[in-house]
Amino acid sequence: MKSFFSLLSCDFLICRLSPLFYMLLLTGFALQQCTSPEVGHWKEAEKEAFSEELMIVSSHPLAVEAGLEIYERGGNVFDAAVAVQFALAVVYPRAGNLGGGGFAIIRTEAGEIFAQDHREVAPGAAFREMYLDSLGQPIEGLSLRGHLASGVPGTVAGLIDIHEKFGQLQPFSILLEPAIQYASEGFRISATEAERLNRFLDQFIDANTRGNAFTAKTIWEEGDLLLQPELAKTLEAIATYGADGFYSGWVADSLKAEMERGNGIINYDDLKNYQPEWRKPISFQFNKFELHSMPPPSSGGVLLNQLFHLVEKEEICCEETWDTRSAHHLLEASRLGFALRADHLGDPESMMLSTGQLTSAIRLDSLWQLFDPHSAGDGLRYVEKDFTLPEAYETTHTSIADSRGNAISLTTTLNSNFGSKVVVGGAGFFMNNEMDDFSILPGLPNQFGLLGSEVNSVKPGRRMLSSMTPTIVEKEGDFYMAIGSPGGPTIISAVFQVLLRDFLFDLDLNDNISRPRFHQQAFPKATRIENEVFSEAVKEELKSRGHKMEVVDRMAVVKVVKKSAGGKLQGAGDKRNPDDHAAGIDLRK
Ligand code: GLY
Predict the structure, then answer these.
(1) Do 321 and 174 sit in the same domain of this protein?
(2) Residue 298 alpha carbon to ligand 1 centre in Å
(3) Which of 204, 290, 354, 455 has a CA that sits 20 to 30 A from residue 147's CA?
């Protein structure tokens, strides 16, 4: 990676500095100032850290710094999490957000577990056929790009709620200070962020009626300064007025005006009525571990529970790489879980079967009778269709824990990279395109190739089905691990495989999360693999059993805090995202 000093661009200095300074620049003082490290925030990413007291792992070093700063100022794990999330909305704009939603699993030091849902909801004016033409066919891209693609955002309400119930640092506005600073003073973008901004620049221009921070340049480079003054104003409104600063007042006016400019449907009532929900976590036992994960409207916890139940039916081997028998078993278990997901999961208000019914041993065991140990299944009832996965998904995750056993696992998303690509004019934040997570036409795959049923069709006030899997694991009653990931449906596979390798083989954490992974979601039939997940011999044997495999570049980006054998907290970020960062703090030393 280039050094920070070589990253500072003179064009920024020219547009911001005073005339006197500009003269100095011209008279030879320039060179030194052009390499001044004083403007713009920057921090190198570290993939591993250890601490006795507090550990944070998230998608961007500056977001992690925000959390550490808040802890140092007297905040707890939950204050730190809120500060990280607001900072991610600034420094990780492709997924960190104010205009999206997410889920959190929380553990308090008393051992209580909570699941918070701040998923977006369909606006009041949404309707089942809203993405179909007069012939009942889907209109290309309508649920993915532009103003109609957005659900009512839940992030701000969710974070405020977490602070009210679990935070200790007052006033709330302190938690937004780092984010406001990054937005108003700017930060230096990483190579990955520059690449993403360039890749989506045309779409930003198409989706927006006015310029914004992201269209300020025609080519972004590593080290460019990203200034977001409009976003800073929005964050200040939230800092001053709490949820009202976002869901009413001038920010709501801007959002409503943005919707009107782009024929969107989110209105004042939608914003005023948005509420996060506290739900009963999906909790279950595997060996000596107690897992707690997200219930519907996420599918993550149900799938994890089903997969761990089905794993118990086979001796899974081996530590180095899966053998054919184990690989076949795991792939078929996943196929079954995802087929059930397609049929039965959605907003809990609309589900016909309860999560208890869907994870019951009787149901799973009876369905498992269709398992053929020698041949790949067909998703039980779905026919195979050609489908290629577009590289479009992005979400982000934060895991935090302290030595007392307080922990939070929080996944947040705009859905695709930069969501709907719409930036709210005057307020500077991206809106989500989460409406695509509904089954816009039951039976038609969404951007992830996922199928859904009527249970997940578009309905006002309904939450769209998700795959986000924030999870907390306990071992013999104590905190053991906080884990989660971005990556659409591959989240579930990644979280499952990292946990399985940890539980069965107690792998070194960094080694574990770096290992290649696979993903089988019933439809399409092909399993996506990171190339070396199976040996060549195993691949051949799987093919002879009817498995199809499609090699993908990278699959999900897991972030973990684990209590290591010596009692220290170990943080691990995934090398699949160069910006993943783990850092700890030991104030009590
Ligand atoms: N938007 C991706 C998910 O929630 O699974």
Answers:
(1) no
(2) 8
(3) 455
Strands 48-51 and 569-572: antiparallel
Residue 580 lies in a domain: no
**pLDDT value at residue 24:** 36
Q: How far apart are CA 521 and CA 526, in angstroms?
A: 8
Query: Which residue's CA is the closest to the ligand 1 atom numbered 1?
Result: 415
Is residue 395 part of the annotated active site? The answer reads yes
Token pair of 124, please?
């009041």
Token couple for 530 = 């990171």
Cα–Cα dist 470/467, whole Å = 10
Task: State percent of the chain over pLDDT 90.
Answer: 84
Q: How far is CA 574 from CA 58, 88, 177, 391, 570, in A?
A: 10, 17, 27, 19, 13
Instruction: Compute the distance from residue 16 Cα to the ligand 1 centre, in Å.
Output: 39
Distance from residue 416's CA to the centre of ligand 1 (Å): 8
Q: Tell me: do 22 and 67 sit in the same domain.
A: no
Q: From its phi and psi, is residue 401 left (phi > 0), alpha (psi between -120 and 50) or beta? A: beta
Is residue 19 domain-resident? yes
332 with 266, same domain? no
Residues 109 and 253 in one domain: yes
Cα 494 to Cα 490: distance, rounded to the nearest angstrom: 6
Residue 28 domain boundaries:
1-39
Decide which of 404, 425, 456 is a domain's last residue. Answer: 456
Of 467, 492, 495, 519, the residue with max ligand 1 atoms within 8 A of its CB, to mutate for a pocket test, comes to 467
Enumerate residues lining ligand 1, CB below 6 A.
395, 413, 415, 434, 437, 466-468, 488
- The whole-chain average pLDDT of the chain stands at 91
Atom of ligand 1 nearest to the CA of 468: 5
- Which domain CATH number covers 364? 1.10.246.130
Do both 260 and 150 map to the same domain? yes
pTM: 0.92
Residue type, 138: P
For residues 63 and 163, state if they share a domain.
yes
pLDDT digits (tens, 9 = 90+) for 555-567: 899 999 999 989 9
* 370 band by pLDDT with thresholds 50, 70 and 90: confident
Q: Are residues 114 and 209 in the same domain?
A: yes
With respect to residue 570, please indicate whether it lies within any of the assigned structural domains: no
Are 381 and 425 contained in the same domain?
Answer: no
Residue 589: inside a domain:
no
Interval 455-483: pLDDT, tens: 999 999 999 999 999 999 999 999 999 99
Question: How many separate domains does the chain show?
Answer: 3
456, 478, 504 — which closes off a domain? 456
The 10 Å Cβ neighbour count of residue 228 is 27
Amino acid at 84: V
